[in-house]
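Support request from a user on the community tier.

User writes: "When I paste my structure tokens into the form, the page sometimes reloads and wipes my input. The last time it worked, I copied everything first. Here is what I submitted, just in case something in the input itself triggers the reload:"
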């Protein structure tokens, strides 16, 4: 990864990932490596990488090296138990344990979005999913909370939408724009599978106590979240929801 550093790209990446004072990526450092190059490095190296190397890379000060560690972990997870050389070295549970032990280093939206559902989401397909509800509701950072909702992409791809809707309820009025966009994005993906289900959820109400219990979600959720959720609706229907 270090050999692919491109100083000419550093300033642009730093701006794109909001690393200025008070911004969500404050203080992060970049080598100037674009994602396709990182993926190529991972393709070349992942079979020879173990947890000691992953530990070193996930702890790196450089954003792209942490991303390389996570994409490598995704590959190891996908192949765990499928080849003799991999089976003897690592299991899916090992990968998930490593991932959850290092969420403090998964500290920007791309690091979350490119790693959580191929690992956590797929691992939870046949397991209790309360872990994601806990991350969404009680995560120590917005990144852990984002992991909670974005991991449900795996379920959506298998036609299972209920967890996305349920975790969206937990985050319905979250104050941070990055969570609002993530929830809207996942709702949009659920709607691609079953638009009537998304419409019913938007027009429905949460099971809660209080004066807002009977107010439809589409009136209570942040406008950014709603716009993302209904992006694929016909124009006339989008306008109807937005006027609500």
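"...and here is what came back when it finally went through:"
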């Amino acid at each position: 990864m270090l050999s692919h550093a491109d100083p000419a790209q550093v300033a642009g990446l730093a701006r794109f990932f909001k690393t200025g004072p008070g911004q969500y990526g404050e203080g992060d450092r970049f080598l100037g490596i674009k994602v396709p190059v990182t993926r190529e490095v991972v393709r070349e190296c992942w079979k020879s990488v173990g947890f000691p190397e992953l530990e070193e890379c996930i702890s790196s000060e450089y954003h792209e090296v942490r991303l390389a560690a996570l994409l490598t972990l995704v590959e190891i997870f996908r192949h765990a138990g499928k080849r003799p050389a991999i089976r003897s070295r690592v299991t899916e549970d090992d990968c998930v344990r490593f991932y959850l032990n290092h969420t403090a280093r998964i500290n920007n939206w791309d690091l979350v979005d490119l790693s959580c559902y191929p690992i956590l989401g797929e691992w939870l397909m046949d397991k209790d999913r309360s872990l994601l509800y806990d991350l969404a509701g009680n995560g120590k950072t917005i990144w852990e909370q984002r992991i909670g909702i974005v991991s449900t992409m795996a379920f959506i791809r298998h036609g299972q939408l209920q967890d996305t809707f349920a975790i969206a309820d937990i985050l319905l009025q979250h104050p941070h724009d990055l969570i609002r966009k993530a929830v809207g994005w996942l709702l949009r993906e659920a709607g691609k599978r079953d638009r009537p289900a998304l419409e019913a959820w938007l027009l429905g109400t949460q099971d809660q106590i209080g004066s807002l219990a009977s107010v439809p979600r589409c009136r209570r959720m942040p406008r950014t979240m709603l716009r993302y959720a209904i992006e694929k609706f016909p124009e006339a229907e989008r306008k109807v929801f937005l006027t609500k």
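Agent notes: The reload is a front-end session timeout and is unrelated to the input. The CA atoms of residues 152 and 207 lie 21 Å apart. The mean pLDDT is 94. Escalated to web team.
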